[in-house]
Write a sequence for this structure.
C-alpha cells in the first residue's frame, strides 16, 4: 500500500480552511496525553511503594494488590487514549480523502464541459 506524503499547510490553507491541520496537532496531543498518563501512573506506583516501605512487611502485603491494580489501570488508560486519538485521526483522514475525491470530480466535470480539441 503506497503511503501518500503530505506537505506542510500554507498560510492560505490555514486561513481558508481548505486543508485540515489537525493531524499533527492530534499527534502532539497523543504524546502529551501519553506522558501525563505515564507520569500519573508512575506517581501512583511510587506512592504505593512509599507506603509499603513505611508500613514494613505487612505494608508490602497490603499494597501489592494496589500496585497491580495501578499498573493495570495505567495500561488500560494508555489503550483508551490511543484509541481515542486514532479515532480522531481516522475522521480527519476521511475528510482529506473526501476532499481529494471532490477535487477529482470537479476536474472531470470541467473536462466534460470543455473537451480538448
Amino acid at each position: 500500500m503506497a503511503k501518500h506524503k503530505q506537505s506542510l499547510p500554507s498560510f492560505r490553507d490555514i486561513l481558508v480552511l481548505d486543508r485540515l491541520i489537525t493531524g499533527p496537532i492530534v499527534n502532539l496531543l497523543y504524546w502529551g496525553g501519553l506522558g501525563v498518563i505515564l507520569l500519573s501512573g508512575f506517581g501512583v506506583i511510587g506512592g504505593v511503594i512509599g507506603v509499603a516501605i513505611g508500613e514494613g512487611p505487612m505494608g508490602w502485603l497490603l499494597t501489592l494488590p494496589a500496585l497491580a491494580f495501578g499498573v493495570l489501570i495505567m495500561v488500560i488508560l494508555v489503550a483508551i487514549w490511543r484509541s481515542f486519538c486514532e479515532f480522531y485521526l481516522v475522521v480527519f483522514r476521511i475528510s482529506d480523502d473526501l476532499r481529494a475525491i471532490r477535487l477529482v470530480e470537479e476536474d472531470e466535470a470541467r473536462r466534460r464541459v470543455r473537451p480538448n480539441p
About this structure: Residues 22-106 form one domain.
